[in-house]
Amino acid sequence: MNKNAFSVDHVHLIYDGHTVLKDLTLHFDRGKSYTILGPSGCGKTTLLYAIAGLRPLNQGKIIFPSEHHIAMVLQEYGLFPWKTVWQNLILGLQLKNKSLDENQLSFAKKLSSELGLDLHLDKFPHQLSGGQKQRVAIGRAWLLAPEIMLMDEPFSALDAITRENLQNTIIKLSKKRPVTWVTVTHNIEEAVFLGEEILLMSKSDGCIYERFENPNFGDVHLRENPKFYELCLRVRKAMQEVHDEA
User: Which residues, in sequence order, are bridge partners of residue 12?
Assistant: First the structure.
């Protein structure tokens, strides 16, 4: 079985009159978690949207297996205010399958419990905290059983403890099914915690400045490990170099 989930092949992208990505080539492995980090305006969100097929390329291509499913989680949650938590949670499944069988409904119920949403299923989005809304968004995407999960700064608006709890949730989900995760973030600690491989983008040319491997990825207690902070310092030093050159 090909270990490659998808590839970015010599991609060149101009957005709003500016070159955002320049001859970018990347390979993403199946079942691996990637984080993309970089200064504002470096092109990381544009890259994520290009992978999702939401940004047209000027040159190059993004190569997927013949059959693939992508789900995306946004910072703004994307919940429908007139639908309940349960209705929002299963919406993607309904759009995909029209009618849901007992196994799908049972899986959705189990997931809602794992996400701590089982007591909130009849509520509407305005009755939820930011963390609860993001759990609904993550659950809705996860129920689609994607091979690729894209997340665009999903926790940036949340307080520190809520953010860490949701990061732990992502780690636990990643152990249940071999999904390729690609998460865009501004936060160094988040990039290291969620990234099996951390991609630091350069601001000047829309390329990868440096890649970092995280051999301790997947440990929900990683924040208590000195090696976590050692890697954070390495990434921080490289990110400072990116800022200085920009």
Answer: 59
pTM for the structure as a whole: 0.92
C-alpha–C-alpha distance, residues 40 and 165, integer Å = 25
201 CA to centre of own chain: 16
Place of tokens 């205010």: 81
Non-local CB neighbours of 144 within 8 Å, separated by 6+ positions: 69, 71, 92, 93, 96
CB 3 within 8 A of CB 29: yes
Answer yes or no: are the C-beta atoms of 22 and 60 closer than 8 Å: no
Check whether residue 202 and residue 174 sit in a common domain.
yes
Identify the H or E element spanning 182: strand 180-185
Domain boundary among 146, 173, 199: 146
DSSP codes of every residue in 75-134: TT----TTS-HHHHHTHHHHHHHSS--HHHHHHHHHHHHHTT-TTSTTS-GGGS-HHHHH
Single residue among 123, 146, 169 that ends a domain in this structure: 146
18-29 and 4-15: which strand pairing?
A: antiparallel
- Amino acid, single-letter form, for residue 191: A
Residue 74 lies in a domain: no
pLDDT digits (tens, 9 = 90+) for 185-219: 999 999 999 999 999 999 877 889 999 999 999 99
The CATH number assigned to the domain holding 211 equals: 3.40.50.300
Torsion of CA 23, 28, 33, 36, to 10 degrees: 0
Predicted confidence band at 17 (pLDDT cuts at 50, 70, 90)?
A: confident
